[in-house]
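B., you asked whether I could sanity-check this one before it goes into the benchmark set. Here's the sequence:
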Amino acid sequence: MSSVFRDPTDMQELPSPSDSGEMTVARTDTLLRAQTHAWREHGLRISFVPTMGALHEGHLALVRRAREVADRVVVSIFVNPAQFDDDRDLVAYPRNPQRDATLLSAVGCHLLFLPPAETLYPEGHCTWVGLDGGPSTGLEGEHRPSHFRGVATVVAKLFNLVQPDIAIFGEKDAQQLAVIRQMVRDLHFPVEILSHPTIREEDGLAHSSRNARLDTQERRAAAVIHRALTRAGELIEQGERSAETIRQAVRQALHGDRRVRIDYVDVVDADSYEPLERLRGRVVVPVAVRLGDTRLIDNLRVEIDSPEKGGS
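And here's what the prediction gave me:
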């Protein structure tokens, strides 16, 4: 598949909806809407993967899944300033759209949407989407107070622009996934939300653009996150149903490396993100830690469909 990171203003007409092997790059909402409208006119289903760029294998897995469930795939790259609580983090966020476009073209993305900030946040912008309670409270919502308002707002905007049939999100950002699902239900967006399991490196560390910030020792230490979650999974498999026992086991495992500083460890309902006392139904064990100046999140997702086996 050819590299087609080209300026859409050079295009004289829309590409046909046939599989041409090319990827269109749209920097304007006008071109985006025209192309997706043409696809819908031909009865094609559209899947959508929103990203902030700095793509890695986790993102590419979402795109591959998007190709499986729809006729056309749209990926957006937009570093959303509204979801950063620290301006230093926003400035430091890696940006390499040329590389990202090459990766997306190689895995079969049909349209890359690269909007400028003024498209999504025009002058005088004052409308926001925020959850009043529900899965946006606690954990990431507590540690990053404006984060989910920024996430919900930009995703709502992108849904309105792309109008996808299906949108796909990774399970690494489990609380974000719960927030998006809640927003879609509450605001009646006509889009199906699919999730994709976390893609991991050889030692179990979840793929993340933030991993590149770790020095050699921090990167080695980061593997303890997956070991701690694996320990939680072992206890649950053995029949443990006490949420507090699971929390303490994860904390103990994380404390095995002095470089790791814990922001939180919890056991919550996968949909409401309410903390649990006893494990039941769909459960998430989320963790957030800091290694040097880098903050990493991960989680274990389990479904409890068996009775307790005598766990405390």
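One thing to flag: The CA atoms of residues 173 and 298 lie 7 Å apart. Otherwise nothing jumped out at me.
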